[in-house]
Give the backbone structure.
Amino acid sequence: MKPIKKFLALCLLLFGIPFSTVMIWEIINPKTAPKDKNDAVAALIILTIPSTVMGGWLSWSLVQQNKREEALLVESEQKRIGLVFLELAENNSGSITVLQLARNAEISTPEAKQYLDEKAKELSADFEVNEDGNISYRFSL
Protein backbone atom coordinates (compact mmCIF):
# COMPACT_ATOMS: atom_id res chain seq x y z
CA MET A 1 0.00 0.00 0.00
CA LYS A 2 2.88 2.36 0.77
CA PRO A 3 4.36 2.22 -2.73
CA ILE A 4 0.96 3.04 -4.22
CA LYS A 5 0.52 5.97 -1.84
CA LYS A 6 4.01 7.24 -2.64
CA PHE A 7 3.39 6.95 -6.37
CA LEU A 8 0.02 8.71 -6.17
CA ALA A 9 1.40 11.49 -3.96
CA LEU A 10 4.29 12.04 -6.35
CA CYS A 11 2.04 12.09 -9.42
CA LEU A 12 -0.47 14.45 -7.83
CA LEU A 13 2.22 16.83 -6.63
CA LEU A 14 4.11 16.72 -9.92
CA PHE A 15 0.89 17.62 -11.70
CA GLY A 16 -0.54 20.08 -9.18
CA ILE A 17 2.41 22.27 -8.26
CA PRO A 18 3.75 23.17 -11.73
CA PHE A 19 0.32 23.60 -13.28
CA SER A 20 -0.88 25.67 -10.32
CA THR A 21 2.11 27.92 -10.87
CA VAL A 22 1.29 28.25 -14.56
CA MET A 23 -2.38 28.98 -13.85
CA ILE A 24 -1.52 31.61 -11.24
CA TRP A 25 0.89 33.20 -13.70
CA GLU A 26 -1.89 33.28 -16.32
CA ILE A 27 -4.26 34.91 -13.83
CA ILE A 28 -1.85 37.66 -12.76
CA ASN A 29 -0.39 38.30 -16.22
CA PRO A 30 -1.85 41.57 -17.55
CA LYS A 31 -1.45 40.40 -21.15
CA THR A 32 -3.78 37.42 -20.66
CA ALA A 33 -7.24 37.78 -22.24
CA PRO A 34 -10.18 37.84 -19.80
CA LYS A 35 -11.59 34.56 -21.16
CA ASP A 36 -8.19 32.89 -20.68
CA LYS A 37 -8.05 34.26 -17.14
CA ASN A 38 -11.45 32.74 -16.41
CA ASP A 39 -10.30 29.42 -17.86
CA ALA A 40 -7.13 29.58 -15.74
CA VAL A 41 -9.18 30.24 -12.58
CA ALA A 42 -11.43 27.30 -13.40
CA ALA A 43 -8.45 25.02 -14.06
CA LEU A 44 -6.82 26.19 -10.85
CA ILE A 45 -9.93 25.54 -8.76
CA ILE A 46 -11.02 22.31 -10.42
CA LEU A 47 -7.75 20.56 -11.28
CA THR A 48 -4.54 21.88 -9.84
CA ILE A 49 -5.39 22.94 -6.29
CA PRO A 50 -7.26 19.70 -5.47
CA SER A 51 -4.45 17.54 -6.86
CA THR A 52 -1.83 19.54 -4.94
CA VAL A 53 -3.83 19.28 -1.72
CA MET A 54 -4.43 15.55 -2.18
CA GLY A 55 -0.75 14.94 -2.98
CA GLY A 56 0.29 16.93 0.08
CA TRP A 57 -2.19 15.08 2.27
CA LEU A 58 -0.94 11.69 1.01
CA SER A 59 2.66 12.75 1.65
CA TRP A 60 1.79 13.94 5.15
CA SER A 61 -0.07 10.71 5.93
CA LEU A 62 2.95 8.68 4.77
CA VAL A 63 5.23 10.64 7.10
CA GLN A 64 2.81 10.11 9.99
CA GLN A 65 2.55 6.41 9.20
CA ASN A 66 6.35 6.07 9.21
CA LYS A 67 6.54 7.84 12.58
CA ARG A 68 3.92 5.48 14.07
CA GLU A 69 5.70 2.42 12.70
CA GLU A 70 9.04 3.64 14.08
CA ALA A 71 7.48 4.26 17.50
CA LEU A 72 5.99 0.76 17.49
CA LEU A 73 9.37 -0.74 16.60
CA VAL A 74 11.09 1.15 19.42
CA GLU A 75 8.36 0.14 21.85
CA SER A 76 8.54 -3.54 20.88
CA GLU A 77 12.35 -3.48 21.16
CA GLN A 78 12.09 -1.96 24.64
CA LYS A 79 9.60 -4.65 25.66
CA ARG A 80 11.90 -7.36 24.33
CA ILE A 81 14.88 -5.99 26.24
CA GLY A 82 12.68 -5.67 29.33
CA LEU A 83 11.72 -9.34 29.10
CA VAL A 84 15.38 -10.34 28.73
CA PHE A 85 16.20 -8.15 31.74
CA LEU A 86 13.51 -9.78 33.88
CA GLU A 87 14.59 -13.27 32.84
CA LEU A 88 18.23 -12.53 33.69
CA ALA A 89 17.29 -10.99 37.03
CA GLU A 90 15.20 -14.02 37.91
CA ASN A 91 17.79 -16.57 36.80
CA ASN A 92 20.72 -14.80 38.49
CA SER A 93 19.06 -13.87 41.80
CA GLY A 94 18.82 -10.23 40.75
CA SER A 95 22.45 -9.84 39.68
CA ILE A 96 23.09 -8.71 36.09
CA THR A 97 26.19 -7.49 34.28
CA VAL A 98 26.32 -5.27 31.24
CA LEU A 99 27.82 -8.08 29.16
CA GLN A 100 25.10 -10.54 30.19
CA LEU A 101 22.37 -8.16 29.13
CA ALA A 102 24.17 -7.20 25.91
CA ARG A 103 24.73 -10.82 24.93
CA ASN A 104 21.26 -12.10 25.84
CA ALA A 105 19.33 -9.12 24.43
CA GLU A 106 21.62 -8.91 21.37
CA ILE A 107 22.30 -5.20 21.86
CA SER A 108 25.51 -3.20 22.11
CA THR A 109 27.27 -2.86 25.45
CA PRO A 110 26.67 0.92 25.60
CA GLU A 111 22.95 0.29 25.09
CA ALA A 112 22.99 -2.41 27.76
CA LYS A 113 24.84 -0.13 30.20
CA GLN A 114 22.40 2.71 29.58
CA TYR A 115 19.44 0.38 30.08
CA LEU A 116 20.87 -1.02 33.30
CA ASP A 117 21.72 2.46 34.59
CA GLU A 118 18.14 3.56 33.98
CA LYS A 119 16.74 0.44 35.64
CA ALA A 120 19.15 0.87 38.56
CA LYS A 121 17.81 4.38 39.18
CA GLU A 122 14.22 3.27 38.74
CA LEU A 123 14.50 0.22 41.01
CA SER A 124 17.18 1.47 43.45
CA ALA A 125 19.69 -1.22 42.59
CA ASP A 126 22.99 -1.83 44.34
CA PHE A 127 26.31 -2.30 42.59
CA GLU A 128 28.93 -4.95 43.19
CA VAL A 129 32.47 -4.95 41.82
CA ASN A 130 34.20 -8.33 41.48
CA GLU A 131 37.94 -8.98 41.64
CA ASP A 132 38.27 -8.40 37.86
CA GLY A 133 36.71 -4.94 38.19
CA ASN A 134 33.45 -5.91 36.47
CA ILE A 135 30.34 -4.20 37.80
CA SER A 136 27.24 -6.23 38.63
CA TYR A 137 23.90 -4.56 39.10
CA ARG A 138 22.09 -6.12 42.07
CA PHE A 139 18.32 -5.77 41.87
CA SER A 140 16.21 -6.89 44.80
CA LEU A 141 13.57 -9.38 43.82
